[in-house]
Each structure stands twice: as structure tokens, then as C-alpha cells.
Amino acid sequence: MNERQSDFEWLQQFARAGNQNAFREIVGRHINLVFATALHKAGDAGGAEEIAQNVFGILARKAWQFAPDDSLPAWLHKTTLLESKSWLRGEMRRRRREQAAAELGTTMKTSDEQPAINALVPLLDEALLSLREKDRTALLLRFYEQQPLNTLGAALGVSEDTAQKRVQTALEKLSQFFQRRGYKTATVAAATAALQHTATSVSAATVSTVASAALQVAPPVLTGLSLWLARVATLTKVQTAAVCVMVAMVPVLWQWNEQRDADAQLNQAKAGLAAAQGEFSSLLTEKQRLDESAAHWDKALSTARAAAENREAMDQKFAAWKQRVRARLLAADYQWPDDLPFIRIPKSIVPQLAVRQPVAWPGTVRQEARELLGLSPAEREQMEAALQKHMATMDDLMNSDRFETNRTSRTHIPPDALASQVFGLPALGEAVKQSSDEMQSVLKTTLGNERWSMVQEELSYPGTDNLRSILNLDAGENGQELAVWVGERNGTPVAGYSWGDQITAISSSGLVLKFFLPDAVFPDGRSVEDQMGVAQLPPALTQPAIEWIRQQAVNRLQKKGDL
Amino acid sequence: MKRVMLAIIILATGTALFCALHNASAVARQELSVQRTAWQTQTQQLARLYLEKQQVSEHITESKQLFASLPPLPALRQLEQKILAGDSLTNLTAAESEQLLAELGFNWNTTGDYLIVSKKSLDGISYDAMNGEKLSTAARGTLAINAAETSAIESMTGQLSKVRSAWVKEHVQRTEPSGDVVAQYSLPPDYAFAQNQLAIYTNGIMNALGEQRAQWLQNHSADWMMAQGLFTSPDMSKIPKEILATLPSETYQPQPTTMTVKRYNSGNDLRMNYTLEQGGNSMNTSVNPWQPFPEAFSALFPGGWKDLAEREGFALPAEFNKKN
């Protein structure tokens, strides 16, 4: 336990328990320091004692404020100086009133032998106050309370050597202070001497007097809140700092936590907002797409409804048009309708009307024949199905029996022909009749007796463009041949043909050969078969014949460059 | 004092820190409030948008269902529109004609004693419009030529035939038979006469029938007109120029009309054929009872093949006897 702690404990006992002995112990311990300081300030013992009483009176009142790390000697020294100044001001006022200023010089006797020390004494307290508290305490204890170094070390909480070094250091600082003030000869020894010169020893009676006087102004024993405040006041700097830090940190930490919490919530809100904005954006895009789609469907619906309404109006208008057309065409007083696409003819004259090549390969009924028979679309489809089946059968039979020769039996080839080829078909036999009967049976069923009789009559006429020939109904009994040739007419290469069976024959005087070249087209855009006039003949004969002419055209024109 | 100062410093620092944190916290709270308000607003907008999206989706679904429930509009719109727009219907395709006839309900079984056909089909229907100097039943039936029109036309054609007969008798040239040729007669081309006859005929039918029917009547009178010498050269107008250029010039020059009858043996049978060169065309076919006598020379031989055989003194093929 060092001096300071001991002072603190005594003061605590006095302040908290009212232990007056403890206070007397304090007074006894430090009366020399206070008295010495007051003496060299006041200059007389009575004043010094009065000052000492005041200082310890103050200590008695403020005993509760001391902390363990406070230096009581340093506090006493400083308080003594302050009280001394106060006392001196009062004393000066009193003496001026008594005009006894002259006596003042006799009260402060200084040794003639020690003029340098005497010069330092007035600055001594200022010099002490300039030191650090630890150094000042060390000098006060060492010189004013004459404590040996070991006791001093214990009081300061350090070793004896350290205490000595601290005293030495403090003295050096003190001498330096004096030197800075112009006392060049102020050495450590001079400072030490000054301290020793101002030190004094107080009698036990004075101690008792001072202590008693001080105790008279001491406050009552602390209790309750004042005791708690006293405890607070007695905290060390570290403890004070710790308490303050704790006191300060609680709201700070709370606020920090609040701020962190606010930041977290803010970040959460921002993240939530960003997510909501992102979702909103994508949803908005999706909704815009849906809006466009809805607009599209609305428009489509609107258009469809408008079309339906328009269609209804058109249907009514069209129905009226049809009614007018029907009325005009079926009127009893029918007249030629210049403005209509249709006309009316009596059924009685239909047998007098003919359609050239009424059926075309592979079994299509020409428009003229279709209309002359008054075919409905369904009847036409049935009829064409039967015709196509028959013609396909005929084509198969012809392709399998076709032969090629250079000799003609039913046709004529010009004697001046440059080249010729004959494609022949023998009689195809019973299969033709079977196919024909089957086809005619369907036609009869489809057409009914009235129209079938007209078709049947047409089927009975031989002739190259007639239905009988086109359907090759005689091919079962009669052979036929198609002769093709290449020659020149007025210097122009031409191609011609001759077809014949046992009943009829047709021929062509020739078409310009260059139109049979691979890339050539006839000027009017018609097919080769139409140009040649062989469209009504079976493809089993016309296709190889045309191919032969084309080959001739290539051989005779392209190879010779005779274009 | 130092402890007080220390405490003040610490507490002041703490207070400053507290204030700073409080300020920052207040700012953060304020911003948080703003962000929360914005978030809340955004969430409300999002909820509203979800609702709107759902409504739009439902609207689309309803529209689709409604659209699907609308009855489909049948075809034939293009043709119908063409008709209702008053467009010309003279060039209907075969499919359109069939479609329209079906729309009108015209077929063999619905039109009684009549038949409805398209005008376009008339081009492909063959019939002789003239029977001698009379209009044929087919011509009168198809072109709806009434009695007054018939009378006017036949009066004109009768006059043309009389003039033609007189001209034939005046200009015919006979060649003496030799070899297989048993008869040969020729009428020289007379361009001026033909043009005059043609003008009378075309003007006559145009005045009687109007342009539309007159054209069809003329188209179907080609054989009669040829026989009456109204054409002195073939009609080359439909032959492409490229092909025309390759033909010899005499092809489309006025040609005489010549009939040459030849005989030949087919096995033990006597057969005959004849060649008729008329208007630049040449036709070679057999002489048989079903083969009409060339009308160009009928003014000379009203009895046909029989008159000719008697006049030239040759025997007709056996089929003529079978027919009798």
C-alpha cells in the first residue's frame, strides 16, 4: 500500500464512516507540507497555522471527492498556495488599514549567508507547480514531509531507487525552471537547499489544533445518494474513463445498433424495391405483350364480326342477284342476256351441238361438255373418276403392247421425208371392252337415261375428235399407228405426222422443227400436243412420237447449227 | 479536474458519436421510409398490374373462344365479290363457271326444258349455224333468235345464196377426168365478190342480232361462209407471226376452191375419196353416203354425190347402194 492509497483509505474512512482519527492521521501526515508551504508564503507561523486550518478544512469538506489515483500532497500543496494567496490578500488589506506595512519586512528574516537560496524561495511554489504531479509529489514528500526514500518509494508505488531517481529528476527540472527565470547559478543543490530551507516541522499541539479546527467545518457522514456520488467521485481516471466510456457507449451502441438496423432495413427495402421494380418491369413487358395480343384479337374479332356483317349483307345482295339471274334465265319470255355470263338453250337442241374432244387425258370433262350435259359438281366428279380409271387402264394396255417399226400399214409418210418412225398398237383385245363397259355403266348411272342416250350416241360415232376415238373404244378390235416424219418445206425443216386406224386417218403437213428443240416454246404458249393436233390421241403413242421428233430436232438442228 | 475533463471528453465524444450515428440513423430511417413508401407503392402497382394482366389474359382467352365460336365464312368470296362489284363475268374460269352454276342451282335436273350454259362455252361448242340459206335450229336455240330476227337474217342469206349460185354457175371450171381422178371442179378466187358478199352478211346479222350474238353466229357460220365463197384465203389472224413467217406466201394468197374425186381399190372393194381445197385448206376424206357433199359446189349438183356421179359418169362405192 503506498502513501497515496493510504491517504485515500484514510479519507474514505473519514468521509464515509466519519472516522475523525483517520482525518487526524491525514493531518498529522501532511501538516508539515501544508504548514511549510503556508509559512514561506505567509511569512509568519500564525498565518501559516490559519492557512493550514483552512486547507484541511477544505480537505475535510472535499474528502469524499478524492480518488485513489489523486495525489493528496499535490492537492494540499496547490490548495495551500491558493489559500495563502487568499490569506495574503486579506492580510494586505488589514495591514494597509493598520499602516503597518513597514513591519512586514521584519517578519521575513532571511539568512545573510544564503542570499541565493532566498532569491529562489519566492519562485519555489511556481516552480513546483510547473512540475508534473508525480515529480511535485515526490519533492513535497521528500523535503516537506522529510520521508526517507524507501517510504517515499512505497508512497509513490515504486522502488526506492526509482523514487530517488524521480526526486533527482524533479530537482533537475526545478533547477532548470529557475535557470529559465534568470537564476543561472540555480543548481540542483540550490533547488534542494531551497526546498530544505522552506521545510519546517510542526508541533503536535499545532497538529491537534489544525485538525480540530478542520473537523469543525467537516460535513456530516455521507449516506444515500451523496454516498453514491462520493463513490463515483472517488473513481480513478481509468475507472472514470471506463464508466464514461460505458455510459457513452450504451447510447452510442444502441444508436449504432439502431443505425445498423436501419441500414439493414434500408438494404432490405432497397432489395425489395429493386425486386419489385424488376418484377414490375418484366410484368409490364408481359402485360404490354398481352395488350398487343388482346388488341390483335379485338381487331380480329372486330374484323371477323364486320366481315360476318358484311358477309351477311353480301349474301343478301348475292342472293338477290342470283334470284334476278334465275328469273331472267328461266323466264317464259327469255331474251338473250347481253350482261350475263350465262345463256339458256333448249334441251331439244343439245343433240345438235357438238364438243370437239369433250374429254381430255387423263379423263377430264371439258367445260363445254360439262355444261351441255348440265353436270352438277358431284356428277362431274363421278364421271371423271370413271373416265380416268378407264383411260389409265387403256394407257397401261397400250404402253405394254406398243411397238415401233418403219413400215406403215394405216398411215402415209411423204416420199420426200428425210426420216420417219412408226409407233404402232395392235388390237388390245377383250380388256378394252371390259374397261369400257365398266366405265359406261358408271356414266349411265351418273347421268340418267336422258343424258346417257346423248352420250351413248356420241360414243357410237367414229372420228378422230369424237369421244369414241378419244376413249379408244375400238382399240380392242382395231390396231392403230402413228407415223412421224421429218422433212423440209421450202428449205425449212419441218416435222409431220399421220395417224390412222381401220376407220379414220388424220395427218399434218408439218410444223417447224425448231419448235421441238429442248428449250423452245411455241409462240402462242400452247402444248406440243395441241400444236400438233394430237391431244386427242393416246399418250402411249404421242409421247414416244414427240420424243422422236425432239431427238430429230436436236440431231438435225443443234448438231448442224442450222437454227 | 482531469477526470472531469476526461469524462467530458469521453462523454462529448460519445455524444458526438451518438449524434452522428443518430443523424445517420435518422437519415437512414428517412431514406428507409422513402424506400418503404416506394416499395409499398411499387408493390401496390405490381398487384394492380397482376390484376390487369389477369384481366387481359382472361379477355384474350374469351376473345379466342369467341373468335373460335364464330362460324367460318364459306369460300366463293372472290367470285361473289367480283359479281357484286359489277365486274365483267365474260372471262370466268371453268371452275368459276361450275361454281356459279352450282350457286344458282342450275343443272340438268333443275332447269326443266332448258339448259343453262356459259357464253364462254359457246366458243367450244360446234354446230352449223346455217342450214342451206336458213338458220339452223341450233343457232336459233343457242342465240335466242326470235322469229322476226330469223326472218330478217334468212331473207339476207337467201339473197346471198342466189347471187352466189349465179356466180358459181358463171365461173366454175371443170377439168376432164383422167386416171384415178373421176371428177374435178374448180372455182377461181374473186376477192371483190367475196368481200362484197361478206360485208352484206356481217352487216345483216349485226343489224338483226346486235354485236354479241352476231359474232357468235358468224363464228358458227364459218363452213357456210366458206362454201358461199365469203373467204378467198384462210383466216391467218390467229396464226402466230413466227409461224406465219415460215409459211410459203401462196398459203395465204387467194386460192381457188377445188374439188377432186379419186377412186382406188381396197382389196376387191371400190373406194373413193375426195380432196377439197378451199380457202387455202385442204381436206381429204372418203366418199361415203354419210359424207355431206361439198356445199361450195352444191349449186351445181343439188343432188350431191349422186348428181355428180351421173354428170361425170362414174359409179359410186357400194355403200351408197346399201344405204338406199
Structure overview:
The complex is a heterodimer of chains A (563) and B (324). Chain A is α+β, with helices and mostly antiparallel strands and 563 residues long. In chain A, 65% of the residues lie in helices and 9% in strands. Chain A has three domains: 3-235, no CATH class; 236-342; 359-558, no CATH class. Chain A is built from 19 helices and nine strands. In chain A, the strands form two sheets. Chain A has a five-stranded antiparallel sheet, covered by helices on one side. In chain A, helix 2 (20-42) crosses helix 11 (204-216) and helix 3 crosses helix 11. The radius of gyration of chain A is 74 Å and the shape is rod-shaped. The model of chain A is unreliable at 100-113 (pLDDT under 50). Chain B is an alpha+beta fold. In chain B, helix 6 packs antiparallel against helix 7 (191-209). Chain B is rod-shaped, with a radius of gyration of 48 Å. The model of chain B has no long low-confidence stretch (mean pLDDT 86). Classes of the chains: A alpha+beta (563), B alpha+beta (324). At the A-B interface, helix 13, strand 1, strand 2, helix 14 and helix 15 of A face helix 1, helix 2, helix 3, strand 1 and helix 4 of B.
